[in-house]
Amino acid sequence: MTERTFSIIKPDATRRNLTGKVNAVIEDAGLRIVAQRRIKMTEAQAKKFYEVHAERPFYGELVEFMTSAPVVVQVLEGDNAVARYREVMGATNPAQAADGTIRKLYAESVGENSVHGSDSAENAKIEIAQFFTDADIVG
Ligand code: ATP
Ligand code: MG
Questions:
Q1: Which of 7, 42, 52, 134 has the greatest number of C-beta atoms within 10 Å?
Q2: Pairing of strands 2-9, 32-39
Q3: Is the CB of 58 inside a 6 Å radius of any atom of ligand 1?
Q4: Residue 88 C-beta-side C-alpha neighbours within 13 Å
């Protein structure tokens, strides 16, 4: 089933000029980048995006990190894109990520872990709508 997921290339990756390398892993996995924009997230955007983690001890640090440098927000399309991209990203903690995954290849720590990917199709729709309109997405 063709579906869409939302991706963010995080500040630790943009800072190290890894946008192209991350995109190569995404495309090699059969996912198509159907929308993409480089932005500097505002504090309000980051707080809203990660509001599900508001009670977690790392929330403040996470918001600070996500606003510390530009990010690249993306919409990815493909067969089972949500699950497929989670696979391609690897475990949240790079120490536990499988070989060949983006986080194993590039992430610096559990917090500065290079990429975000939606965890469900329902959340993908919500997250895409926070950053893109239908007209931005060219499938
Ligand atoms: P993401 O939502 O970014 O795709 P994820 O779904 O693998 O990652 P979550 O549990 O949703 O992981 O955590 C969201 C983000 O919060 C992580 O990607 C990471 O940047 C940060 N984070 C999670 N756990 C920790 C932690 N123990 N310490 C610091 N930061 C953390
Ligand atoms: Mg998550």
A1: 7
A2: unpaired
A3: yes
A4: 24
**Catalytic residue (one of 85, 116, 117, 131):** 116
Q: CA dist 33 to 77, 98, 109, Å? A: 7, 23, 25
- Over residues 6-36, the pLDDT tens digits come to 999 999 999 999 999 999 999 999 999 999 9
Backbone angles phi, psi at 78, to 5 degrees: 170, 180
The reported pTM is: 0.98
Ligand 1 mutation pick, 113, 118, 120, max ligand atoms within 8 A of CB: 113
Note the pLDDT of residue 33: 98
